[in-house]
Design goal:
Blueprint (H helix, E strand, L loop, with lengths): L2 H9 L8 H11 L5 E4 L5 E5 L12 E7 L4 E7 L5 E6 L4 H4 L3 E5 L3 E7 L13 E3 L4 H7 L5 E4 L4 E2 L4 E4 L2 H16 L6 E7 L9 H8 L3 E5 L2 E2 L18 E6 L7 H14 L3 E5 L5 H6 L5 E6 L1 E2 L7 E4 H17 L4 H4 L1
Parallel strand pairs: 3-12, 3-13, 13-17, 14-18, 15-16
Antiparallel strand pairs: 1-2, 2-12, 4-5, 4-9, 6-7, 6-9, 7-8, 10-11, 11-19, 15-17
The structure holds zinc ion.
The site of zinc ion has 6 residues, from α5.
């Protein structure tokens, strides 16, 4: 594990539509390991690494890995007469997960605040929640305006020697795995496209544009796998923390190609990579699979407990397994040639 990189990736803000801070870091890290890195009009970062070995067919397959750079957050909606701030969620937040959380408003300068209890011992609806920044109203108006981005202040922490906690492991663990896979990639017979996508949390809005430009043959989204915990039983979320990378059989938007699944399971067996089957929520894989003429696609990723909360948990063994599978996948994906021609 590259602790320094993990920390940098997880502590950098980037809510849907405002991913520039994290995308700049991604570009910087991809540049030395790619032949070309560009950012498209939507803001997707696309790193291309050309095949270093001869292709199986007449041209190298185009193989995509995609992790979404956006994290759920909020936007300033209203400043009231007392200088309290109301906000609009950007991405799937729930009231329980955000009450009493420290936030940073990215105004004229960063402003610290907290989402305060406003309804006695009952949970307020999100529309009735207020952020208190503990400054006079005039000062608030000077620093903050409607439309400013709000992120959670929670930074990466280590709960114990194996488990990390963070506000945005969905999908910054995916971003970290994407970057580390590219850092460790050997020779390939395929052209690899490492894509750091935007606006996934608002309904997979970035990846379709990247996929349209790339025209992938095969692709994997990298995203958190739904994981049982105190919130939900194993019969509903079938992945467990620490038991290997999750391979999506199906999610709300994609039914994985069965031949690609078999290929991934076999790779895991051959390389002794721990894995588990996941049934997930909905990811960038849908756009890889269904843009243009279509591609073989699914999603893999480390189990992430309490996704869409500010206290998401991930296990270092699962992160390592995910990176290993991504590297093995890219280095062997030319064997999928016969399935896509
Ligand atoms: Zn996600």
């Amino acid at each position: 594990m590259n602790q320094k990189l993990l920390k940098l990736v997880c502590n950098t803000p980037g809510i849907p539509g405002f991913e520039d801070p994290i995308q700049e870091i991604v570009e910087e890290i991809l540049r030395p390991v790619c032949d070309e890195v560009r950012r498209d009009r939507m803001g997707n970062v696309i790193g291309q690494k050309k095949a270093t070995k001869p292709p199986v067919g007449e041209r190298p397959l185009r193989v995509v890995l995609a992790a979404h750079a956006d994290e759920i957050g909020m936007m300033v909606k209203h400043l009231d007469g007392n200088g309290f701030i109301r906000f609009e969620p950007v991405g799937g937040l729930n009231a329980q997960a955000i009450i009493s959380q420290r936030v940073i408003i990215h105004g004229r300068e960063p402003v610290n605040g907290v989402i305060v209890p406003t309804n006695g011992d009952k949970l307020p609806a999100m529309k009735d929640m207020l952020i208190d920044v503990a400054l006079p109203r005039d000062k608030v108006c000077e620093l903050v305006e409607v439309g400013d981005v709000i992120t959670f202040a929670q930074e990466l922490v280590r709960l114990n020697d194996k488990v990390y906690m963070g506000r945005n492991f969905d999908d910054r663990i995916g971003t970290y795995c994407l970057l580390e896979a590219m850092n460790h990639l050997g020779d390939t017979s395929v052209d690899v496209y490492a894509v750091s996508t935007v606006q996934e949390e608002k309904g997979v809005r970035g990846m379709p544009v990247a996929a349209f430009a790339i025209e992938p043959d095969v692709g994997l989204a990298i995203d958190g796998s739904l994981t049982w915990g105190a919130h939900i039983g194993k019969h509903e979320n079938i992945c467990a923390l620490g038991e290997g990378t999750g391979i999506y059989l199906m999610d709300g938007l994609t039914i994985a190609d069965r031949r690609l699944l078999r290929f991934l399971f076999d790779l895991c067996e051959k390389h002794k990579i721990p894995y588990q089957r996941n049934i997930g929520g909905g990811t960038d894989a849908s756009a890889i699979q269904r843009t243009g003429v279509g591609a073989l696609a699914t999603t893999i990723g480390a189990p992430t407990r309490y996704m869409h909360s500010t206290v998401q948990l991930a296990h270092s063994d699962d992160i390592v397994a995910t990176i290993k599978l991504l590297v093995a996948f890219l280095e062997n994906s030319h064997h999928l040639e016969k399935l896509v021609r």
